[in-house]
Amino acid sequence: MAAMHPVHTGLLGGSFNPAHGGHRRISLFAMDALHLDEVWWMVSPGNPLKAKAGMAPLPARLASARDMARGTRIRATAIEAQMQTRYTVDTLRALIRRYPGRRFVWLMGADNLAQFHRWRDWRAIARLLPIAVIARPGYDAAALRSPAMAWLRRYRVSPARLRDKGRSQASLQQPAWAFLRFDPDPRSATAIRAKSPGWATDHASLRPRDGVTRRIISQPKG
Question: How many helices (H) and strands (E) does the chain have?
Answer without folding.
Answer: 10, 6
